[in-house]
Amino acid sequence: MLVGYARTSTIEQGAGFEAQLRELSALGCEKVFREQVSSVASRPHLEAAIEFCRQGDTLVVTKLDRLARSVIHLGKILEVLEAKGVGLRILSLGVDTATPTGKLMLNVLGGVAQFEREMMLERQREGIAKAKAAGAYKGRKPTVRAKADEIKALAAQGLSMGAIATQLGIGKGSVHRALNS
User: Fold this and answer.
1) How far is CA 53 from CA 22, 99, 118, in A?
2) What pLDDT score does 62 carry?
3) What is the pLDDT of residues 103-128, one digit of tens each?
4) Which of 33, 61, 78, 179 places its Cα 20 to 30 Å from the Cα of 14?
5) Annotation marks residue 181 as catalytic
């Protein structure tokens, strides 16, 4: 039996999610597990998909990054699948672990994917550091400090922290911090 697994990190990625579901359906997956959650969060539907698979089944994903967040994570998933006698097929890579060549290719490609992600994160950190040095990366403007006088004036009029927060469009905690600073 072909068992599909589709995942996107956010609900806003609807088109990508639908594309995954179409691909898995077109391939003939009889059961498809789906979730829209970050790869670093708990993924109960992935766990359910792995649990559902029986000896001789194949777990199918459209892309490697939909399944595993690192080579170590991929290794753990493969270990569980292998112990159950379940194969793994990754459509975008043309990899099927039912063959020795497929297993080798998956390990090589998993290492490359992790390297690529680490390089992207390094470039991102360098870009942020450069922008900060140039004064272009300042982060979010502090809303409470800008409204501190207004908060104190409203409190002096007898408004509750909840009413002040609602009126100014900020949180109660922010009002509390402004009043106690």
Assistant:
1) 21, 18, 32
2) 94
3) 888 878 877 877 888 898 899 999 98
4) 78
5) no
Name the percent of the chain lying above pLDDT 70. 97
For the ranges 32-46, 81-95, 167-181, the one whose mean pLDDT is highest: 81-95
Confidence at 98, pLDDT banded by 50, 70, 90: confident
User: Domain spans of the chain?
Assistant: 2-120, 143-179
Catalytic residue among 9, 38, 70, 181: 9
Contact assessment for residue 59 and residue 81, using Cβ atoms and an 8 Å cutoff? yes
Do residues 81 and 54 touch, judged by C-beta distance below 8 A? Answer: no
Q: Does domain 2-120 have CATH number 3.20.20.140?
A: no
